[in-house]
């Protein structure tokens, strides 16, 4: 075992400059996957955090003795939501809500820092008692800029009797409570559910892509491992070596991914959802979830590596030959049909967990069908091809549809939702108070969808770059020899570009367009021009990024192809 | 320069840093002639072939193709030259794994001005004569080493080149297959009026060529003609060109 590990380490380090490049491609792929995966996980914790910090403003009627009365009132000041919580203590000694060190007594007020900063505005002067008895700290605030006041009253004050506080959203009539634990508000629950759905949208393509990163290593080692098998290494030894190599590389990538996430999180906190940005801590899901991600990623990569190895292990000659890939089995389509059949059965009443599970299932099945569609696109491309570049691109798609699907899957999956939501406009008037939260929700769904779409495009961009580079590396000898024989590199370059662009346009572009078309009946409410423009910018930037990532490997192509004396390694 | 000189290298020198790979070589290839280049490993055979074929620029010396100087052309010009006037057969790994055999052969034609249909038709017409009938739709991974080399030969010849260069084309094959393949290469080039420059270690193979050139330490030792050994094409040359068997030959010929 020690020897085996030593040999693995030597294989890893002794791969030469190009071997190193191959490994760093895997590291990069895993790093980006990890960053985005942490983000997908963190999003759930972030919304759960908000829901928890907001719960005290959703009073729960006391079962036994009431110890305080709580009423919540919300209104708009210059387009910003001000939440005022009225409290009257019935039984002294009740623990204050989170964020407060003590409850303000009658005639006192505690304000959030953001509210305190604007308390001198004419609209606010006179609204609150003069005596400021403290601050509503971060632990009691949804977001750093939230405007919250806690006003103390005597139990007999009219505002505490239930009259005088209308049922504004988000608001609550005067309620006799036993404590300030509260409950998750329906709005917070809706946001958490949407966040869970968004995570599924992000995680599925990520898993596909991250798993592919492992195969990337395996593919590179194919020849060498097959020769180890020929020399007499047992299947077990080969598996251990490859998996060890993949896991070591993946762990490096995962740690790098964590660093990338740390760098990316400050700007992410500025994304406004539900009327405000985020606390830095919101985006850090805690040590355990982070550790779980950091362990799960190398594990997943290791498992994918084993799956990728199966063929070599079975037959040492299996990899030397390159067979026509087996046709897609109908089973895949049935899987999708079953999942799709389940979707309509989900009413509004369905539990979030069930929705997420079915959605995930539908996604995974779509993932199984995706490569088949890519192969179909490839066959059409081959049939229509007139020049060598498109012929080569089409053949490549038929030959390895999974690799192209990996690149486009995210965009193809989220494109529909993005196209659908991107065009819908939130109702433009923010004057009626009851509308605020509803209009936020639509806007936030759009923001969230855009974020998911951006993530999908990021996956596509990184995947396109890595696929392009690894396909150059894998075919370096052939490319070099073709160049020697006078084949212009531009043809190979164009083929590589088409190989990504054709499926991205057909499947990604197609799904965005389909979503947009499906949204038109609803667009009577109003087509949002900013939404449409943002969507368009996002799509154009995404396509440009994918093309650019592919172009990055052009110098690599040039360098492998201008090797004057190409030799097999 | 006599009119049947196809390719002529004069005073070719090439160094890689301190290593002198070619120390001044003169070599003339005549029309339809098969020349074997032999010599120990590292003696400069590949470098000579690369200089003649316009893959490398020699440090000094000249290369003429049909009386025209070609070593002074730019990279693009030499690329076009290689694609249109020369054919190449390398040891292995020159076929694109995604393309079926016929499209691999058709590739150089498609890079030219042939339509896809015509290029593939023309490419397929080479399969029968080269003993590859039925292999058109197979991909390189599904071919044996010898078959793959024959596909490579078809690809080298499909553009009707003036000279075919082959650098140890059977080095990765077993001896029997290697010999079969090499015979086919010599016969096919001869039959198509192409000259052949082949680097080989195998004296048998050299025996089928018209002339053997020995390279040692970047210098040419001998250029002995092979009067004694008959070229193999006399026996069966009619079988290795689409002209002989294919009705499409006229459409594809230049
Ligand atoms: N690209 C290169 N860089 C450095 N040295 C080279 C290169 N190509 C060939 N050489 C050297 O030039 C000499 C001749 O090489 P080559 O022509 O490949 O020999 P042969 O084909 O006869 O085995 C050798 O010493 C080789 O090491
Ligand atoms: Mg050599």
Sum up the structure in keywords:
heterodimer, A: 569 residues, alpha/beta, 3 domains, 6-stranded mixed sheet, 15 helices, 63% helix, B: 254 residues, 4-stranded antiparallel sheet, 10 helices, 34% helix, disordered C terminus, binds adenosine-5'-diphosphate, binds magnesium ion
Whole-number mean pLDDT of chain A: 81
Number of helices of chain A: 15
Oligomer: heterodimer
Low-confidence stretches of chain A: 314-325, 428-433
- Mean pLDDT rating of chain B: 86
Could you give a quick summary of the protein structure above?
Chain A has 569 residues and is α/β, with parallel strands linked by helices.
Description:
- The complex is a heterodimer of chains A (569) and B (254).
- Chain A is 63% helix and 7% strand.
- In chain A, strand 3, helix 3 (113-118) and strand 4 form a beta-alpha-beta unit.
- Chain A has three domains: 1-55 and 184-323, no CATH class; 59-182, no CATH class; 327-569, no CATH class.
- Chain A has helices at residues 2-13, 16-54, 113-118, 186-231, 235-268, 287-314, 330-342, 352-384, 388-399, 401-423, 435-474, 476-484, 489-519, 529-552, 554-561, and strands at 68-77, 80-89, 108-111, 131-135, 147-153, 172-177.
- Chain A is elongated.
- Chain A has 569 residues and is an alpha/beta fold.
- The longest helix of chain A is centred in the middle third of the chain and has 46 residues, at 186-231.
- Residues 314-325 and 428-433 of chain A have low confidence and may be disordered.
- With 254 residues, chain B is α/β, with parallel strands linked by helices.
- Chain B has a six-stranded mixed β-sheet with strand order 6-7-8-3-9-10, with helices on both faces.
- The chains are: A alpha/beta (569), B alpha/beta (254).
- Chain A binds chain B through residues 321-324, 385-388, 391-392, 395-396, 398-399, 475, 477-478, 481-488, 491, 564-566, 568, and chain B through 46, 50, 53, 55-56, 79-84, 86-88, 90, 92-100, 103, 107-108, 110-111, 115-116, 139-142, 156.
- Bound molecules: adenosine-5'-diphosphate and magnesium ion (MG).
């Amino acid at each position: 075992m020690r020897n085996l590990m030593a040999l693995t380490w030597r294989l890893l380090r002794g791969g030469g400059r190009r071997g190193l490049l191959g490994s760093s491609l895997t590291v990069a792929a895993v790093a980006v996957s990890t960053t985005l995966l942490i983000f997908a996980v963190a999003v759930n914790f972030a919304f759960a955090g908000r829901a928890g910090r907001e719960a005290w403003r959703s009073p729960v009627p006391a079962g036994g003795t009431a110890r305080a009365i709580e009423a919540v009132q919300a209104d708009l000041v210059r387009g910003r939501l001000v939440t005022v919580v009225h409290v009257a203590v019935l039984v002294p000694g009740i623990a204050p809500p989170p964020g407060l060190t003590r409850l303000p007594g009658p005639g006192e007020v505690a304000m959030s820092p953001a509210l305190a900063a604007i308390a001198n505005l004419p609209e606010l002067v006179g609204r609150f008692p003069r005596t400021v008895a403290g601050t509503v700290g971060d632990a009691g605030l949804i977001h750093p800029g939230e405007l919250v006041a806690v006003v103390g009253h005597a139990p007999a004050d009219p505002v505490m009797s239930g009259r005088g506080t209308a049922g504004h959203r988000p608001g609550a009539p005067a309620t006799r409570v036993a404590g300030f634990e509260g409950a998750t508000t329906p709005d917070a629950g809706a946001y958490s559910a949407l966040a869970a759905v968004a995570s599924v949208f992000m995680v599925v393509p990520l898993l596909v892509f991250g798993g592919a990163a492992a195969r990337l290593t395996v593919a590179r080692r194919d020849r060498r491992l097959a020769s180890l098998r020929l020399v007499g290494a047992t299947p077990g030894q080969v598996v251990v070596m490859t998996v060890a190599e993949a896991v070591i590389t993946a762990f490096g990538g995962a740690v790098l991914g964590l660093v990338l996430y740390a760098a990316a999180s400050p700007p992410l906190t500025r994304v406004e959802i539900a009327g405000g940005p985020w606390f830095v801590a919101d985006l850090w899901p805690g040590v355990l979830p982070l550790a779980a991600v950091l362990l799960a990623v190398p594990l997943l990569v290791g498992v994918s590596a084993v799956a990728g190895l199966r063929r070599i292990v079975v037959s040492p000659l299996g990899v030397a030959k390159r067979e026509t890939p087996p046709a897609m089995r109908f089973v895949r389509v049935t899987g999708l049909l079953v999942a799709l059949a389940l979707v309509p059965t989900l009413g509004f009443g369905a539990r979030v967990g069930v929705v997420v599970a079915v959605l995930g299932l539908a996604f995974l099945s779509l993932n199984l069908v995706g490569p088949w569609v890519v192969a179909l696109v490839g066959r059409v491309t081959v049939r229509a091809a007139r020049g060598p570049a498109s012929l080569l691109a089409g053949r490549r798609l038929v030959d390895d549809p999974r690799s192209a699907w990996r690149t486009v899957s995210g965009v193809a999956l989220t494109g529909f939702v993005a196209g659908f939501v991107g065009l819908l406009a939130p109702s433009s008037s923010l004057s009626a108070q009851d509308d605020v939260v509803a209009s936020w929700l639509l806007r936030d769904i759009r923001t969230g969808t855009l974020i998911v779409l951006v993530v999908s495009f990021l996956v596509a961009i990184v995947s396109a770059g890595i696929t392009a580079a690894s396909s150059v590396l894998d075919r370096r000898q052939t490319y070099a020899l073709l160049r020697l024989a006078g084949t212009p590199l531009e043809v190979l370059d164009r083929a590589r570009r088409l190989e990504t662009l054709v499926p991205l346009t057909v499947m990604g572009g197609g799904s965005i367009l389909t979503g947009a078309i499906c949204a038109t009946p609803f667009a009577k409410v109003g087509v949002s021009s900013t939404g449409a423009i943002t969507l368009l910018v996002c799509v154009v930037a995404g396509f440009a990024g994918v093309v650019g990532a592919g172009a990055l490997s052009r110098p690599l192509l040039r360098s492998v192809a201008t090797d004057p004396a190409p030799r097999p390694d | 320069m006599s009119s049947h000189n196809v390719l002529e290298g004069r005073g070719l020198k090439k160094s890689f840093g301190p290593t002198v790979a070619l120390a001044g070589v003169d070599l003339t290839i005549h029309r339809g002639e098969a020349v074997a280049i032999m010599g120990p490993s590292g003696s400069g055979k590949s470098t000579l072939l690369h200089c003649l074929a316009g893959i490398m620029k020699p440090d000094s010396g000249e290369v003429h193709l049909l009386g025209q100087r070609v070593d002074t052309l730019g990279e693009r010009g030499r690329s076009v030259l290689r694609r249109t006037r020369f054919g190449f057969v390398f040891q292995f790994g020159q076929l694109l794994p995604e393309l079926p055999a016929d499209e691999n052969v058709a590739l150089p034609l498609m890079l030219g001005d042939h339509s896809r249909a015509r290029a593939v038709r023309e490419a397929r017409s080479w399969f029968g004569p080269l003993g590859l009938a039925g292999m058109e739709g197979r991909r390189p991974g599904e071919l044996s080493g010898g078959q793959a080399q024959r596909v490579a030969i078809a690809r080298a010849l499909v553009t009707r080149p003036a000279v075919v260069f082959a650098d140890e084309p059977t080095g990765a094959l077993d001896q029997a297959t290697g010999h079969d393949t090499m015979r086919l290469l010599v016969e096919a080039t001869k039959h198509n009026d192409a000259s052949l420059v082949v680097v080989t270690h195998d004296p048998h193979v050299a025996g089928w060529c018209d002339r053997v050139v020995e390279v040692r330490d970047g210098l040419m030792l001998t250029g002995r003609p092979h009067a004694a050994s008959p070229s193999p094409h006399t026996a069966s040359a009619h079988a290795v060109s689409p002209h002989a068997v294919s009705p499409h030959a006229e459409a594809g010929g230049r």
